Amino acid sequence: MSSTPVVPDQGSGPGDATAGDALARFVDPDARPLPVRPAEGVAWLLLLAFLVVSRWGVAPDFLLEWDSANYALAIQHFDVFEHQPHAPGSPVFVLLLDLAALLGDGTVTPFLVVNALLGATALLGVAYLVRRVAGPWGAWLAAAGVALSPPFWYHGAASTAYVAECFLSVSTAALAVAMARGRLALPWGMLLAALAMGIRPSGVVTLLPVVIVGAALARPRPRDWMVGAIAGAVGMLAWAVPTVVLSGGWTRFAAANDALSDWQLELGSILVGDLSQVVPRSTRLGRYLFDAANALWPVMLVALVVRGRSATHALPRGTLLFFAAWILPGTAIYVFHHLAKSGYVLTLVPVFFTVLALAVASALQVLGDADRRRAAQGLGLMATVYVALNLAGFWYAIPPDLLLRKDAYWSDLPSHVMLTGDYGRFGLRYRTHAAQNVDRLVDGLDPEEDLVVFLFGSHELHRLQLYYHPDHWLVAASVDHGLAHETGTDTTFGEFQLVVLRATRDGMSWAEPTHVLASDGVLDLERVERALPLPLRREPRRIVVIYTCPPCFLPLGPGVVEIAHPHIGAGFRAAVLAPECPIGEAADNAATQVKFSLAGAACMQ
Fold first, then answer.
1. Between the CA of residue 605 and those of 445, 448, 540, 600, what are the distances in Å?
2. Which of 60, 174, 273, 375 makes the best surface tag, with the fewest CB within 10 Å?
3. Lowest-pLDDT range of 508-512, 558-562, 577-581
4. What is the predicted pLDDT for the residue at 339?
């Protein structure tokens, strides 16, 4: 990545900037296309091969998180109300997963196939955006920068949908630029952009503005606007109507969306909660973006300063308007509504690398020959640092939570953190560690006789087990929200979600201990002045309780006794309980219980 972007030597056509300015060619309909030479084609094949191999080589063979289970369940039965997947649904992404499932076995394989295809398309889209300004190799370098970006790399190897977020961002921007350049008719551009938003419906809010600006830069006639609006509406209805129908109708679909939106506001918005949350919530986006670009931020700042000081080449108004429409809506949503995970910034990551490529190419243009040579050397150095940092970071960095939760520490991991998010191969292992241990634990249980209770804070593990063990006796309990139902018996999962997501936590921490006791066919869970009775449809032989750490201990009341303490880790613990029996018998059986061989304890007879 030490090559210098080559600014193509061609004049711009009529535009809103001084003739000869590199940025004027970004949306100039008269600029000539550049030919693709064999060396460039070989470089692209190598980059796309790296994209696939680097992701598949570190991908865990287990679903990563809550959303992963939602998408996997949606392949079996699509219903947004039941969080299959979660609201507002991603019908095109689920369809792609369903098609990819035909190509190979395994739950994770469809995610890897789809993420590889979407990731490759996103890289090509970035190149399309910047190639006529930054040149062929500048476009390749920009795409390579995206490929090495930690969140893009991480989510390409994980069973998540955030690479689709990046794909949608790039594809809508590319369609907008194609319309502005006169390469695509407005109705077709609107139709294709609307269809693409079915892969991540949140794009209707975050990315529709850039599509409209791209169309406006082509200066269409009123009739073209009308036809384009109709085409866009048809494209959105093509995926929105099936989504609502498969979710059981508008009432159920709207209820799920409203509940999730309220919950997201409570968790992530700077407009909700006390003042102590404003700083961490408002700076989270900056931290994630710093992780995504790390060593290239100084390059961006220097290039913008050099370009901005040029008095001979004014900044093109059309280009500025395009990037404002691409950047600001998503940024506003993430700051004022919700930004729970690093994957969300993949909407903005391609914006950074596109602006970086354009800024560098334009800055090189205004420099003299001697300064341009020195700048090329500096660019080569910074590109080398960026490559080295991200290769080492992905291979060695571990998530901060692993150091904070000493019960989850793995002796074979290094004890240093290079990034602020859950990135790298150790991050992938860490995120699936607890879930795989719970999966092995449930494997050894009797689906009819053994009850598994997931206390508040462990709902993600419960959701994953609903996918892997749908026939087992699994209960998700949320004492914080006063939920008085047993999942799968008295209520559906969708109704369970409405109760959990609608209720306030009243300032309580998920780390509060829960007191467990049993009597007269009822399992009582008491948590800080709140009690949640779970009526049991039959007497369980064993009760396995999964809970968070901290608080790392589970107070037991009358009616149950702990007979084993299997290892879970990664911030979670498990306790195997049984109807109360003599302590000596429980101690005699504890050694065999802890190895997941849970059958045959005498005190359970």
1. 15, 15, 11, 8
2. 273
3. 508-512
4. 79
